[in-house]
Amino acid sequence: SWSQLLFTILILYNEQTSFRPVISFYPNWNQVFLGESVTLSCNVAPIAQGNLGYSWYRDGERIPGDQQRLVIQAARVTDSGHYQCQAGASERSDSVTLDVKSNRLILQAPPAVHEGDSLSLRCHSRPGYDSRNPVFYKDNKAIGFPVSGSELQIGRADVTASGTYRCQKVIRFNSGRNYLILNTDEKYISVSGKTQLKPMLHSVKNLPPKPGKLFIVCENQIMEKHKIGLFRSGL
Question: What region holds the Ig-like domain (predicted)?
Fold first, then answer.
């Protein structure tokens, strides 16, 4: 009968089931100037949230911080590095890179871009500089997208947005009597495919066995793992 084919989907979490957090940036750039602030967040699936203790690592070494957010108020060169976080007894997150620059001009971009994301780039000059006329380049060709201020709004990203980007600005000094044309370093942006879910059979500790019950884990290959239990009667 149809009732025997009914699937009930339950979101399950067991404290002994491993999960991997994902680090995000706010603002969503991983390259900043000396003295600027940036916040890193250790994100876990809703099923894994609770009174978790957080740990932060830079270049593999534990650093101060036990909250979900790591706030860097005035970035220094020594804050540059590869960051990971851990939530409770979770696995460590994949590493993300923070790059603190002393250049006069940098191209800011999201640390990771997936198909469907809203993509914007920023041609950012050091505070105090009189900078004008930003021009963005992709694969050494000027881009014709509209520029709002110093930001280039590309919109919804697809794989065709992958490429090597840089930007250029005019920096004026001596009350505008002199100027320099500066270019940023090139940055390759790769737009990855949409999130793929791969269901895998998985046993979970401390769940009482129930005849005719099937437990499947769907692992999100881009974001953290989501534990999804599928129970079907009549198996």
Answer: 21-97
What pairs with residue 44 in β-bridges? none
Q: Report how far Cα 150 is from the mean position of its chain's Cα atoms.
A: 22
Question: Class of the 103-195 domain?
Answer: mainly beta
Long-range contacts of 130-134 (CB under 8 A, 24+ apart): 130/171, 130/172, 130/173, 130/176, 131/105, 131/169, 131/170, 131/171, 131/172, 132/169, 132/170, 132/172, 133/169, 133/170, 134/167, 134/168, 134/169
CATH number for domain 20-102, candidates 2.60.40.10, 3.30.9.10, 3.30.450.20, 2.40.40.20: 2.60.40.10
Q: Specify the pTM.
A: 0.72
* Tokens 């840089």, located at residue: 166
Q: What pLDDT digit, counting tens, does each position of 7-62 carry?
A: 333 334 444 445 799 999 999 999 999 999 999 999 998 755 566 799 999 999 99
The sign of the dihedral angle between the CA atoms of 163, 109, 112, 155 is negative
